[in-house]
Protein: Nitrilase/cyanide hydratase and apolipoprotein N-acyltransferase
Organism: Methanosalsum zhilinae
Amino acid sequence: MKNIRVSCIQMDISYCNKKENLQKAFLMADSAVSKGADIIVLPEVFSTGFCYERIEEVAEEHPYDTIQKIADFSKKNNCIMIGSIIEKNTFENNIEYYNLGYCIEYGQIAGFYRKIHPFTEEKKYFSPGSKVHTIPLRGCNLNIGLEICYEIRFPEIARKMALEGADILITIAEFPKPRSDIWSALAKARAIENQIPHVACNRTGSDPRKDYFGGSLIINAEGDILAEASDNETILIADIDTEQKNKIRSSIPVFADRRPELY
């Protein structure tokens, strides 16, 4: 697939209110579908926010009720859905919580990604994931590189996925005020240095701990901003040329000129 229409649902997340957040997300996703979106991206832990006080209640175990609802929407609307939820994982009577990224393609689970870098307070509640990998979309022959919030500060993650053949980089986030300039700089840098389109989907609004600035971006493989949000709830949409990265890598051969034996 050469051209694909991507959408970021920049929403204010109601703290610990899964029902309200799901209703809002599906309402906004309906609008994105009506505008022709092929890929719909939701912010980090969009269904609950970082609901630490009730984490045992809001966290979900396999088969993940929220993800099943999203899969139903994805199947009904023939679209791809990407985001994350709070996961509860029980193994040999040991309970661990993860920030679980998911990618659903036309109603089927294409893959998961557990955030490997919990940020500050998150470390008290979330275990880190242990693998960085791309998620293949077989129906449209694309590879998704999914990272979560703080991980936009780690260029190694995006580079590893680019080297593994990622066609689009997706960053889902709850990136707070006052770091909007840092967010936009990092989002553009990850696209430019990897010569890959980048959908950087942040939340807006506030929760009991922080305020958020939104500022979601859709950037092409050359680093041009195709669509940018302010601090309002919005449905950001742009068309991405997934073959552009090949043209850019031919004219500016960063990947061919790498010296991995030295760094």
Remarks:
- The domain at 3-251 is CATH 3.60.110.10 (Nitrilase/N-carbamoyl-D-aminoacid amidohydrolase).
- The chain has a mean pLDDT of 97.
- The chain has one domain: 3-251.
